[in-house]
What does this fold into?
Amino acid sequence: MLTPRQELILRKVVEIYHEGGQPVGSKALAVDAELEWGPSTIRNELAMLEEHGLLAHPHTSAGRVPTDAGYRWYVDHLPDRAGARAERPLALQLVRREVDEAMRMTTETLSQVTNLLAIVSAPPIETATIRHVEVLPLQPQVLMVVVITSTGGVTKRMLTFDQPVDPGLADWGGSYLNERLVGLGLGARLLHQRLDDPTLGPRERGFLAAVAPAFTELAETAEESLYVDGTSRLVSSYRFEDQQQLNEVMELLERRVSLLGVLRSALDQRDVYVRIGRENEAPAMRSLALVAAGYGLPARNLGTVSVLGPLRMDYARAIASVRAAALELSRFVEEVYEP
It folds into this structure.
């Protein structure tokens, strides 16, 4: 357990190192107005903090830099972490916009505010509900089925039949599908049942069986969307030790499945999820810090908001900004997702 003096000195080392990027020595700390002790006393405390594994120094005569454990202590002891607010509010203006646009805007704004790499995962498509269906004859044997979801997404599927389709049957199909499917989730079991209604005649049931894949395969084949902004900020703000390390990070960003797996860890967290250095399971991220939070409906998180950057980041701003973005997206999806 640290003494109040050690806590203050450690906090100052992290903050000064963040600002200047150079190892922090006792002389630099002694001139700080908040520290009442001389260089010799501060040197002793720095040595104790190093013994605790919270500080390290790259060279014998150099000052100290925070370790992963030092950053962890700093994050865990941020004042009013649970209720912290971003220094600059995130003016996302997401009301009634489509999900795709909202995700892009959130990612871009978050990266600009934090000056870090921002990553946002969109809600899985199976969580959306059907808002409207159109069955459009294009040619005698070709129909297009248009599905509009509660998130504003639009999908189109072309269907080719062996025989010309009766226009009256196509009109009936559009009306029936809107009456029976609107409001159902794309992943709902009831969706399959309503596409196989035994009370209908063979002609109508055959038609529904032909158009069913436009609905049943939509959620099964869709990939989770991931939005990334600020890759250049990450590269320019962090001095990678070697080209291989940089390549590993870039490869992780390209492998969306692996990155989604990393972000899913934040879905079960009640507050902001912070992983520093070697706390990250992915080897490519063990020299970086991840700050993430889930967003979604009151009873279920649907996606994550996160920033990735160097260990020497402004954690207070990153945590507050990620929390604010997650809150705004939660408000957005509550309005957009129809019950």
